[in-house]
TrEMBL record:
Residues 6-305 form the Inosine/uridine-preferring nucleoside hydrolase domain. Pfam families: IU_nuc_hydro (PF01156). Gene3D superfamilies: Ribonucleoside hydrolase-like (3.90.245.10). It comes from the Bacteria. It comes from Enterococcus wangshanyuanii. Coiled coil: none annotated. One of its GO terms (molecular function) is hydrolase activity. Keywords: Glycosidase, Hydrolase. InterPro entries: Inosine/uridine_hydrolase_dom, IUNH, Ribo_hydro-like. The gene is rihA. This is Pyrimidine-specific ribonucleoside hydrolase RihA.
Amino acid sequence: MAKQKIILDCDPGHDDALALLMALSSDKVELIGITTSAGNQLPEKTFDNTRKLLALANREDIPVAMGALKPLRRELIIADDVHGESGLDGAELPEPTAVAEKISGNDLLAKLLRESDEKVTIIATGPLTNIAIFLLSHPELKEKIELISFMGGACFGGNITPHAEFNIYVDPEAADIVVKSGVPTAMFGLDVTLKAQLFEEDIQEIRAIGNPVARTMADLLDFFNLTTTVPFLAEEGHIEGIHMHDPCAMAYVIDPSLFKVLPMHVEVETSETLALGSTVVDYDDLFEREKNVLVGFDIDLPKFKALVIDTMAYFSK
Ligand code: RIB
Ligand code: CA
C-alpha cells in the first residue's frame, strides 16, 4: 500500500519529538518536510531542536523551515516551565550538520504541496499559526490537503487555563481559521491525549532498546516526567503517567484504528473572556451546525504503546 505523504508542523517539545520519530519510522507515511512553530519555545529554538532531532535520527535529508515568529495577533507565550530552557531539556542532542534552509515555512508548505502529485496530510503539534497563514495565503492549495490532524484543544477542560489547552490558547485566531477552513480536520485534544500515558516501566523498556535514539528519547521522557501535570483530582496513591499529547495526532494518521473519533461541530473562543482559547465542541449537537471536525475521545493504549516501542526499535536497524 502506498505511503501517505505527510508534512509535520511542530514545536519540539518533548512530545513533538516522539511524534517526529514515529513519522520517520513508520512504513505507512512518508515525511516530505517539516515546518516549525513558536510555542513550546521561541521559534529559533524549536527550529534548532527539529534539526537536532533529524541529526539524531540520521535524516537531515528532510527539509525543515522555520514558520511564523509569533501568533497572528497576540504576543507569544512559551512553555519553558514544561519543556525547559532549550525546549528539549534532559538530553544531549547532536548538532545538525546540514545547512539550514533559507526558505520560509509558508513557502516550504506551498512548494511541497505544489510539487506533490498526490494529496498530503498535515500533522500539526504546536500552535496553528503556520497552518492558518498557509490556508489564508494559498487557498488554491487547500484541495491538495488530505487531512489536517492536529493536537490541541479539548471538549472538556484545559491545561493552560481551566478552559483552554496550550496550543490553541497561544493562537486562538489561527485555530479558529483552521477548523473553519473546510479542509478535513481531526482534533486530538486533552480528552484523548491525557489517556495516552507512558509510565516509568515504559521508559525503562525504551531505554533498554539501547540505540542512541531510544536512549535519548528515554532521557527526554525522564525530564518530561518531572514537568508533566497531574490532574487536580487524582486520587491519593494514583500514579499518573506522562501525557503523550502530540504523538496522538501522528499515530492517528499512521493507524486510525488506534482511536475513537467522532464528527462534531467545533469553533474556537477568540474573545477576551475567561474562556479565551477554548475549543467549543458541540458534543450533544445542540447548535445543529456542520460537524466540521473529527474529535478524538479514546485510544487503544496497548496498541499505542506498541507503536511507541516499534518506533524506538526501528532505529536499531
Ligand atoms: O497541551 C499540549 C501541547 O502543548 C503539546 O503540543 C505540547 O508539545 C505543547 O506544545
Ligand atoms: Ca507540541
